[in-house]
Amino acid sequence: MIKFGIVGMGLRGKLFADTILQSHYAELAAVSDAFAASLEAAVERYGVPGYADAAEMMAKEKLDAVVVATPDFLHKEPVIAAARHGLHIMVEKPFSTSVEEALEMEEAVRAAGVKCLIAFENRWSAPFVNVKHAVKSGEVGRVLAINSRLNDTIFVPTKMLKWSQGSSPGWFLLSHSTDMACYLKEQKPVRVYAVGTKQKLAAMGIDTYDSLQTIVTFEDGTHAAFTTSWILPESMPLIVDFKYEIIGEDGALYVDLHDQMVHQAGAVYKHVPTLGTPVNGRLLGPPSHMLHAFIDNIRLDTEPLAGPEEGVINTRLVDAIHRSAECGAPIELA
User: Are 28 and 114 part of one and the same domain?
Assistant: First the structure.
């Protein structure tokens, strides 16, 4: 059995722990969290050793792999520590919110010779799996344009995340949609121009962007338009509004993850999030499919679908988007 430790036992850490419990090839061996209450709850729930210090967990426990589920800006230390201990790593996206840190992490992973998966979970989302197949098989021809809208309700930066001021809708959301464009096109981004708004959340004492809009140019001369915000009203029928349009030479594809086929009316109107609904107790959402795939990468000695190189490309891109929004000018990507 592949022995896993988890760093960060928030919502995502618990989801990954529950997923590991359903694997025939892996087991949860230890957990780590810097917050005493979260750590105590995780130890009680999963019955495994708990550590306030992730590095201590890696040094003391006989682990094979770790899942790093810390906030966006706190990936570097656990990733590098895991690499130095020779542990395989699945780390939340974005790889880092710093290009310099992302390059350090990439080098540590390469030097250690361990497997590393960056958690771009939409690569395992059923709608996008179908989209990738259609693009790869040539059903729409060469992709000429992509338009993406990925928004969250204001619940996310004000209530769900205690650390939203250290992130942005760019790091938290655009990292998903920009990675998907790179994955579908198999092209690197070379230029960005972005604008952003800081008003509503800043007035609430949260110094981060309300929204960002950007045009990305790829090395084949085509473009993609991305818009993201996390200030939609909480009355929205689903916490996330994700729409994706792929226009090719011979066809087009349209993805709407805001409408997941079931609409419920009652005291409030809502869209039921069916894509992650467990069936017979089995977790079937993209994050769980992704972790099972990573477990297979380890046991079958195969390469993860999104590794450090993709993580660095994404960090460079989202970093450039922020810099462009700040300076008001296009940014060329090295």
Answer: yes
